[in-house]
Design a protein that fits this description.
The chain is mainly α. The protein is built from 8 helices and 2 strands; from the N terminus they run E-E-H-H-H-H-H-H-H-H. Helix 2 packs antiparallel against helix 3, helix 4 packs across helix 5 and helix 5 runs antiparallel to helix 6.
């Protein structure tokens, strides 16, 4: 519910059942969600870099080869397998054409590292979440329609969640968002908030 004050500035009126405790709980839930999303991005980077066997380093027969040839540090491509063999739908030609290219691998891996680190630390939330949304939407468009639903899958839910995290300044709870926002760099470049 919105009320206009005498100065014509809209202000949200808090529902009677909404308490400070609920507000604190909401901020903590957003902080936990931010850290969890950050860990998924950072873990994907680590697993693809070293082939730890949680997705990278397991061949189609199920044989595990940790730190083996699938590891990015040993020349494995973090994008080739999925984009070359998993892409299906209206954009599969595009994804097949970029599968395993060095620029694709580097952009993907730097994206995972940067987004994951920023989310865990709670800094650069706008940029990290925007990049995460783009990454999620691209991953969603690799297989169309999604296998479990004609339109919405976990990539769409992830993209929406990142928008919420950025919009609600989730980096301020259990993160360095407030400190980051006060730096001269961010003051002069608010997009970095």
């Amino acid at each position: 519910m919105t009320v206009l004050h005498h100065n014509h500035v809209a202000d949200t009126v808090r529902a009677p059942e909404q308490s400070e405790g609920a507000n604190v709980l909401a901020h903590r839930a957003l902080g936990a969600l931010r850290i969890a999303f950050g860990f998924t991005f950072l873990w994907a980077f680590i697993d693809k870099t070293f082939a730890l066997g949680y997705h990278t380093g397991v061949d189609p027969t199920g044989t595990l080869d940790r730190f083996g040839s699938a590891a990015w540090i040993h020349g494995g491509s973090p994008t080739e397998g999925f984009l070359k063999f998993g892409a299906n739908g209206p954009f599969d030609g595009f994804y097949h054409s970029i599968a395993g290219a060095a620029i694709t691998d580097w952009l993907f891996m730097l994206g995972l590292l940067g987004i994951g680190t920023a989310l865990i630390l709670g800094i650069g939330m706008r940029a990290a979440c925007a990049a995460g949304v783009v990454m999620y939407l691209m991953m969603w468009s690799v297989v169309m329609p999604p296998e479990t639903n004609p339109l919405v899958d976990d990539h769409i839910l992830g993209a929406i969640s990142l928008v919420v995290l950025a919009a609600l300044s989730a980096g301020n709870t259990w993160g360095f968002g407030r400190i980051w926002a006060q730096t001269k760099l961010v003051q002069e470049n608010p997009i970095l908030k």
